[in-house]
Structure formats: structure tokens, C-alpha cells
Design brief:
The complex is a heterodimer of chains A (305) and B (230). Helices cover 29% and strands 27% of the residues of chain A. Chain A is of the alpha/beta class and 305 residues long. Chain A is globular, with a radius of gyration of 19 Å. With 230 residues, chain B is mainly alpha-helical. Chain B contains 8 helices and no strands. The chains are: A alpha/beta (305), B mainly alpha (230). The interface between A and B is medium-sized, with 18 and 17 residues.
Chain lengths: 305, 230
């Protein structure tokens, strides 16, 4: 497992290779690519490939508990799907992985989420750096009101990227399987693209700042089946370089693309409080052929309220 | 196919009704073959050529029921995209239907043998072992259809144990055929050895049916486990 450096560092770790993509965080230069080191062979078995170790995670909005204690491991270079009915906390959990809940004033997170061994809610951790490494793609494509080129270049520019921007734009669009469709119209508005193209542009934009995790919140819910298939194929491609966590309402999608599936449900207390709870987390194969929990089976076979 | 379900929509209700209907049709297919097997038993032991002909004629009905069942399973898989227990159930039904249909063909093969020989005229000893063999094989088949109706997860193991009795009787029957060469001609001996083989196969199909049912209920297929463990 790799150890991440998410603090606001003074420079690269000693002996680390020269960072290939310096970006800025909170006004200070952050080295990227040079701060990761491999752990020794003493690593506990079963955690070797995990990118996130979630332990005792609870999420509150004020006095309302949105997510009950959750413990799970997310593996590297896998697609992990979070499924469950509305209100089950899956999107809330997703947003914990890059501290998006920080932006909600009443939100409070307990427990730990270790990313490459570092608790991303630790005191020394810079949430901006967390979000750069752990990118997000939203439900509705949300390109900036700028050209296709500038949509990609925006993040790296802000981060102080000094390399060849044209190359970075091309590489990001190629990785997002969009380059061939937009290479001749990079200066046109992103809004001129179709919904599916816009979503791939948002994926390219997330990739441009060299993250190693992509969080996707129902990325295909506003797309037609063909555009959906393209995004799904893209996800399979991307997992070679990234780890992906996807929230989806589409169970066939979870079954098609993901390696592991977490099923969440919602418990309604006497007080009316609705709290999300992780019911079962296993390989997608097991979840869709032989789930161990009756609640999982009832949900995936459509036997719910 | 489980009880105490949470309340669900009309669409899901129709799906569950369809699953129940598919199970009913599968049991119905098994009953048709079982009925025919009963006729065969009587035809074999009492030299009833008329019954043997009825066995052969009834096979069309079995084939139609098999095709009808298979079509319904395909349709529900295509339209409902079942997963987990529902998917296992439907896949198992396809397999079970095939086992039943093959058993039906073997019953017909036996009946054709009776007609070719214009009935078997056997010594009491051979007649006795043949009767026991047919009864135990056909009982095993009937038992597999009952476990289908009950979706008994233990059926595979239980039927496999009972199958040992059939295998022993087949061995006994063959030994007898080999020693009692004076009381029958070669054609009869060949035809009877086929009947023995068909009965053995019917019992094997019954064991398979039990295993498919176990898989539908538990998600574990005994022979898969053996392969997984090397």
C-alpha cells in the first residue's frame, strides 16, 4: 500500500523522484507524484490493495444521523459501486471520500477514512489537496461556460501547471475517449456538446489534475443508453489508472461495470429519523448471484416497498 | 420464491406470479413423464404392448410441455432481468426441464424395446430383479419431482445416496443377464441390457435434478465445489 502525503508540504519527500506535475494548494506548492512511497512487506494481509480504509464512519447533519457506523475497504484499480434506495446514505458516503461534506456547514463526520494510510480528516490534511487527488464527476454534466479546451485547462492552470498545456488537454480528452470527437473544435463552447460528450468532458476535466481516485455520483442518470454504454466502457478503461467509486440507481449498471458492490439501506426510527446503513459489501458477482443478506436479495430482485 | 416478502408493486407481483407458474409447469412436465414411466413399468412387467405404444405416443405431449416451459423461462429472463435467487431458480428450471425431457426419452426407448421384442418372456428370477430395478429407478425419479415441488435444498445429497441402490441393482441385473444365457436369445439379452442402462440413466437424471434444485435454493452446486477445490 502506498502512503499518501496530503499535508501542505514544503517539498518532495527526501529521495523522491522529481515531481512531474507541480500544482498549488492553499498558496503553497504541492509536489505530486514524488511523495508516494511503498510500504514494506509487513503490511497486514487483506489491506495490501486497499486505497481507502473506512473505519467506524458516521455522518451527521446537525443532530440528524445520516449514516450509521460504516466500515469498509475500497480496493485500488477496482470499480466499487454503492447502491441502495433513496436516503440510504450512499451519496453521503461517496462525498466523504473527498471531504465534499465539509462544504455543508451542519455536516459532521466521525470515524476515519484512511487514504493510502493517511486519515483524510486528520488535522494536517488539506481538503483541497484531497479533492485534487480524489476527483468527482457529478450526476448532471456540469461543464464550465467556457471552451472545450479551457474546461480541461482550468484546473491545471489554477494549480500552477507549467508543462505543455496542449499535450495535457489532448491526453486528458484521449483518456476520456472524447479526443477524436472534439479535436477540431477545441475552441467551441462545451455547451455545444451532447449530454454524453459533456459528461466525458467532465471526466476529462477531473483527470486533468492527475487524481488517482474518481468518485462518480450517478454519472449516467441523464444520459441515453448509448451514451451510458460509452461512459461504462470508459470506466472499465480508466480503472487501469484510477480507482473508481460510483453511486448508481441503475442496478444493471452496477452489475455490468463494478468489481465490488456495497448495498446500503435506510432504517427508519420511531422518531422518524432515517439513517442509512451498509448492509452488505462483497464482490459484485456474489451480490448479484448469491447475496448473503435477505435485505440485499429483496432489493436487487425488486422486492421492496 | 421466498415467503414473508415486503409489500411490492403490481409489476413485481406479476413477475412472482410468473415464477410460480413456471414452477407449476416444471412440476407438470415432471408429472407427465412420471405418469408415462408408470405405464412403462406395467408394460414391461406384464408384457402390455398396448401400454408400450401409449408410452411412445405420449412423448409428443412431453415435448410440447418442455418447449412451452423453456419459452416462458427465456421470456421472463429477457423481460425481467432476474438476479440472485430468481436467476438461480430460472437457470435451474431450464436445467431441470432438460433432465426431465431426457428421462422421458429414455422411458420411450424402453417402450420401443418392448415392441421390438413383442414383450419380454423372462424367468422369474430376472423378472424379479428387473421389477426391483424399475421400481427403484422410477421411485427416485418421482422423488426428484417431489423435491422440485418443495424446492428441497437437500434433495441432491439425498437422491445421490438413494441412487446407490439403483446402481447396485443394475450390477445385479447385468450379472444375471450374463449368466442366464440359456433362458433367452441374444436379441432379448441386448434389449434387456439397454433397459438396465436406461433405468440407470433415469436415476442419474433424478440426482441431477436434485442438485439443480439445491443450487437454486442455496447458490451452491455440489460439483462446482469439487472443481473449485481442485
Amino acid at each position: 500500500m502506498e502512503q499518501a502525503n496530503l499535508t501542505q508540504p514544503a517539498g518532495p519527500a527526501p529521495g523522491a523522484p522529481t515531481p512531474d506535475l507541480p500544482v498549488r494548494s492553499g498558496g503553497r506548492a504541492v509536489s505530486v507524484g514524488g511523495v508516494l512511497r511503498k510500504n514494506g512487506p509487513g503490511e497486514a494481509p487483506g489491506t495490501q490493495n486497499s486505497i481507502f480504509d473506512v473505519s467506524g464512519l458516521k455522518v451527521f447533519y446537525g443532530s440528524f444521523q445520516a449514516v450509521a457506523e460504516t466500515t469498509m475497504q475500497i480496493r485500488e484499480h477496482e470499480i466499487t459501486a454503492l447502491i441502495g434506495p433513496s436516503g440510504c446514505g450512499k451519496t453521503t458516503v461517496l462525498r466523504c471520500f473527498n471531504r465534499m461534506n465539509d462544504l455543508i456547514e451542519s455536516a459532521r463526520v466521525e470515524g476515519t477514512i484512511r487514504y493510502h494510510g493517511v486519515d483524510i480528516y486528520g488535522d494536517q490534511v488539506d481538503p483541497v489537496e484531497v479533492r485534487r487527488r480524489i476527483g468527482m464527476v457529478f450526476q448532471k454534466p456540469n461543464p464550465f461556460p467556457k471552451s472545450i479546451y479551457d474546461n480541461i485547462a482550468f484546473g491545471p492552470r489554477i494549480a500552477g501547471f507549467k508543462g505543455n498545456m496542449d499535450d495535457l488537454v489532448e491526453e486528458s480528452l484521449t483518456r476520456a475517449a472524447l479526443w477524436d470527437e472534439v479535436r477540431d473544435k477545441l475552441k467551441e463552447s462545451a455547451y455545444a456538446l451532447s449530454g454524453g460528450q459533456q459528461q466525458r468532458l467532465c471526466i476529462a476535466r477531473a483527470i486533468a489534475t492527475s487524481p488517482d481516485v474518481l468518485l462518480m455520483d450517478e454519472p449516467c442518470s441523464s444520459l441515453d443508453p448509448i451514451a451510458t454504454l460509452r461512459i461504462e466502457e470508459l470506466m472499465i478503461e480508466l480503472k487501469r489508472d484510477y480507482s473508481i467509486i460510483i453511486v448508481t440507481h441503475n442496478m444493471q449498471q452496477a452489475a455490468r461495470v463494478s468489481d465490488r458492490t456495497a448495498f446500503f439501506t435506510v432504517d427508519v426510527k420511531e422518531t422518524g429519523m432515517r439513517t442509512g446503513r451498509l448492509v452488505e459489501f462483497d464482490t459484485t458477482d456474489v451480490i448479484f448471484t448469491r447475496p448473503h443478506q435477505k435485505q440485499t436479495e429483496d432489493y436487487i430482485t425488486g422486492r421492496f416497498g | 420464491m421466498t415467503d414473508d416478502r415486503s409489500p411490492h408493486s403490481e409489476i413485481r407481483h406479476r413477475f412472482e406470479t410468473e415464477l410460480e407458474e413456471i414452477k407449476r409447469l416444471a412440476v407438470g412436465l415432471g408429472s407427465l413423464v412420471l405418469e408415462n414411466a408408470g405405464r412403462l413399468n406395467e408394460a414391461l412387467l406384464e408384457n402390455r404392448l398396448d401400454l408400450a405404444q401409449q408410452v411412445i405416443d405420449a412423448d409428443d405431449q412431453v415435448d410440447r410441455a418442455y418447449i412451452d416451459l423453456e419459452r416462458r423461462v427465456f421470456r421472463v429472463i429477457a423481460l425481467q432481468q432476474p438476479v440472485a435467487g430468481d436467476l438461480r431458480f430460472l437457470i435451474s428450471i431450464i436445467r431441470v426441464a432438460h433432465e426431465i425431457e431426457r428421462s422421458g426419452d429414455l422411458v420411450v426407448n424402453c417402450a420401443k424395446g418392448i415392441l421390438r421384442q413383442h414383450g419380454f418372456h423372462l424367468s422369474n428370477q430376472i423378472q424379479g430383479v428387473l421389477a426391483r430395478l424399475c421400481r427403484s429407478a422410477l421411485d427416485l425419479f418421482g422423488s426428484s419431482i417431489e423435491s422440485l415441488a418443495e424446492m428441497d435444498p437437500e434433495a441432491g445429497r439425498r437422491l445421490d445416496e438413494e441412487d446407490d441402490v439403483v446402481d447396485d441393482l443394475v450390477g445385479e441385473f447385468y450379472t444375471l443377464l450374463a449368466t442366464e444365457t440359456e433362458s433367452m436369445d441374444v436379441d432379448t439379452a441386448i434389449e434387456l441390457s439397454r433397459v438396465g442402462r436406461y433405468m440407470e440413466r433415469i436415476a442419474d437424471h433424478a440426482v441431477n435434478i436434485g442438485e439443480h434444485i439445491g443450487f437454486a435454493v442455496t447458490g451452491i452446486f455440489p460439483r462446482h465445489g469439487e472443481i473449485d477445490e481442485g
